[in-house]
Write a structure and sequence with these properties.
By secondary structure, the chain is mostly helical. The chain has 14 helices and no strands. Helix 1 packs across helix 5 and helix 6 packs antiparallel against helix 14. The chain is globular and about 50 Å long.
């Protein structure tokens, strides 16, 4: 666990200090891999079923797991440490969230604004500040927290697995290479894998922000949608993020509070959530060392 914390800190530091290195997070190999499988297994019953994910995602993840287990102990564990850091860095992002939000906040014309929104995953020119909060929180879940959670729990192969599933679930360019049942299975699996990190984000936000407001928003979201706590809808992330935004009416931000600044405020909140996560992880490490 202590080594995991060290690796996480190194990856976060490198990502923040050298955003230009995001170009190394290239997943074209994965697109080519899936395209090749689709061409060769087009009529195979397993490939056209949701279980085809065991091939498209499972085989690359299994390969990483095998290589890691074979080399992890080499040179007194240094190779394993290096591999973990490289895989986590590769799985992080892939884009730089801080840079994308900064591009949105500083956009000076509609074209630049739309380009920034597209980089954050928006399909259309969204107009409400609440939409900005949703973009930032969900992108933070996809780029940071989902990868971080599964890395700490199950190691580097799990972090890569989350990223590959997320690419299928979130990118038409990847999902379009799959049979529809497999693409649907990828979306459901992403929601399942993202649910626990999203819940952990919510309660870290409660600790880092307004506990009463966040818990109230979390309860009201589930109550208003008639959902049980185990429902995989991740909309509570937006509701709880909105509870910490410092506007009386975030749907009617005018004048000195342009809607783009809501995204900047949301980014500050997710950084505070990340600090809470790292603090909790550090406390666990310290407790184990002292125990």
């Amino acid at each position: 666990m202590a080594l995991s914390l060290l690796i996480v800190l190194v990856v976060i530091g490198v990502s923040a200090a050298a955003p230009e290195l995001t170009r190394l997070r290239d997943y074209d190999w994965f697109r080519r891999w899936v395209t090749t499988l689709s061409e060769r297994l087009e009529l195979n019953a397993l490939w056209t079923h949701g279980l085809g994910l065991l091939i498209s995602v499972g085989l690359p993840v299994l390969a990483v797991l095998v290589v890691y287990n074979l080399l992890a102990g080499a040179i007194f564990g240094l190779i394993g440490l290096l591999l973990s850091a490289v895989i986590l860095y590769y799985s992080w992002g892939p884009r730089d969230l801080d840079a994308d939000v900064a591009d949105l906040v500083t956009a000076t014309d509609p074209e630049l604004r739309q380009r920034a929104l597209t980089a954050l995953g928006a399909d259309d020119d969204i107009s409400k500040p609440a939409d900005r909060v949703e973009l930032v929180f969900h992108q933070a879940l996809k780029r940071w927290f989902g990868v971080l959670f599964w890395f700490v729990i199950f190691g580097p192969a799990a972090a890569l697995g989350f990223r590959l599933i997320q690419l299928f679930a979130d990118s038409a360019g990847f999902a379009g290479k799959l049979p529809q049942p497999q693409a649907d299975a990828a979306r459901r699996m992403y929601e399942a894998l993202a649910w626990i990190p999203a819940q952990a984000m919510t309660w870290a936000l409660a600790l880092a922000g307004d506990f009463n407001a966040v818990s109230k928003a979390w309860r009201e979201h589930h109550a208003s949608h008639g959902q049980g706590l185990l429902h995989l809808d991740l909309g509570f992330l937006t509701a709880t993020g909105m509870a910490c935004i410092e506007y009386d009416d975030v749907d009617e931000v005018e004048g000195g509070n342009p809607r783009e600044l809501v995204a900047e405020q949301a980014l500050q909140l997710v950084w505070r959530v990340l600090v809470v996560w790292l603090t909790v992880l550090a406390v666990i490490v310290l407790a184990r060392l002292l125990g």
